[in-house]
Amino acid sequence: MYQSGLFAPTMREVPSDAEAASHRLMLRAGFIRQLASGVYTFLPLGWRVLRKISSIVREELDHAGAQEMLMSALQPAELWRTSGRYGAYGPELIRFKDRGDRDFVLGPTHEEVVTALVASEVNSYRQLPMTLYQIQTKFRDERRPRFGLLRGREFLMMDAYSFGADQEGLDHAYRVIYETYERIFARCGLEVRGVEADSGTIGGEGGSHEFMALADVGEDTIAFCAHCGYSANLEKAEAGRREGVQRTFPANDEETSPELVHTPGARTIDQLTAALGVTAAETIKTMLFVADGQVAAVAIRGDHGVNEIKLKRLLGTDTLEMADAETIAALAVAPAGFLGPVGLDLPLWVDFAVADMATGITGANKGEFHLRGVVPGRDFSLTRVGDLRDAEEGDPCPRCTEGSLGLRKGIEIGHVFKLGTKYSLPFHAEFADAKGAAAPVVMGCYGIGISRMMSAAAEQHHDEWGFRWPAAIAPFQAHIVPVSWKDAAQRALAEEIRRMLQDNGVETLLDDRDERLGVKLKDADLFGIPLRIVVGKRAGEGIVEYSERALPEAEAVSAADAVERCKQRAAMTYR
Predict the structure, then answer these.
(1) Which domains does the chain have, with CATH numbers?
(2) CA 410 – CA 210 distance, rounded (Å)
(3) Contact between residue 210 and residue 195 where contact means Cβ atoms under 8 Å apart
(4) Which of 16, 17, 18, 454 has the smallest number of Cβ neighbours within 10 A?
(5) How far is it, in rounded angstroms, from Cα 187 to Cα 52?
(6) Is residue 383 pLDDT above 70, yes or no?
(7) Nearest-angstrom CA–CA distance, 276 and 272
(8) Nearest CA to 353 among 318, 303, 315?
(9) In angstroms, how far apart are the furthest CA atoms of the chain?
């Protein structure tokens, strides 16, 4: 393609709200343009990258035996009511009525639609197993769209669904797709880690894994053990307990009691530690939550944070939120900041780290007062104890005795779930087994964020001048840059190189613009096309400069040699 005809409007200045490098560069390089908050138009260069990623996804899924289809983004709300997710999904679900006053949603995912389809078409074990997938635009009304394509309200996604006769079949399908994902991300040049994860609103009791592209801009945190390979999203990561913790009660334990300490104005842990000259690890904070309309208390060490996903899972509730000031006041227990577990007449959940403490400082359930010398298990009950906090850097590994946890930021670009019968039961997706008995279909579901992959690749592959796209997903494979398009020798050699490359299947962009070389090279760096051939003053000798975007040096070679190198490098991008 000739660059003079390429619609790639570059920008010198990008909007101030473009925080992520991938967002800034895609705007600057003319890959995307914003239509509304969280909604983007993909211009030709951006669309070429998305097509490359989609092609790799299709090739690998087809190779794994999955079948592509396409479902409607417009979904009757009744399907979501059947699954129970119409209310549970929350405000991210875009709801509306048609002219007949019927309720519809714009699909953020398609479990309901595909299960209803299978329920109506599959009736025998002979039709199983099978895996169906699609690549389609999805919609979620994100409260705070940010980071460009990383958190948008409209995005391109692959979603796949496996259907089998039993748990063994689900485990096999899950393994196949997991390994397929690993090949997809490797071919796209992404550094990705598969981690244990929470199933969220998708649901299912069989477990799930997320695939995280490692990047500092990531909104997710990964906890991992370098020793044994354990890794999990922070929402799911277990906080290992230190071996050999011995809780030593004070001398004359039966005769001692907590000391009431006046702590005016010490409503926060920082204020409390400053007032008493102690560390946050010596304190116990008590937090109230409303779970399915019922108030429960959580006791956690002052230097730790409550993991609400873990708490919600432990309580087995559909909804969970922190109690507001009005709720706390209505309970008439104590002002916020002075709550404590001693004598608290509410269901109390205690984190493992608190249960392991010998003594601690807690709120006294009395305004402006705390209790010093509180003994867990003596002064408040330890009947409800669990892992309720976020794992932290340096925590013991929960899987091995030698390792400790490290933390990395990541971008979620894929998720796999073992759904079991969560959707097949309410939709009566059943089949007759070999003996004629009816049984529910056993399901898995699997998603890849195609547009998020594009941003993740941009985050991992860029420098201060622009993109450095992995060859398999770059918009073009080779970029020919004549120093002067008006020079007949340069123009003729550039055209000859373009013809040879295209005849050999190398996607090529030729910069035929009448611009200064500095402008052309700056745009070439910005676009990030992997292979570059600069045609200059030695064109008459058949000599050009060959370079690769990811490498610092250019080399003077013959035009034939440059073409051969491009052919070889391009051939390496195919499976």
Answers:
(1) 16-238+407-459 (3.30.930.10), 253-386 (3.90.960.10), 476-571 (3.40.50.800)
(2) 10
(3) yes
(4) 16
(5) 11
(6) yes
(7) 6
(8) 303
(9) 100
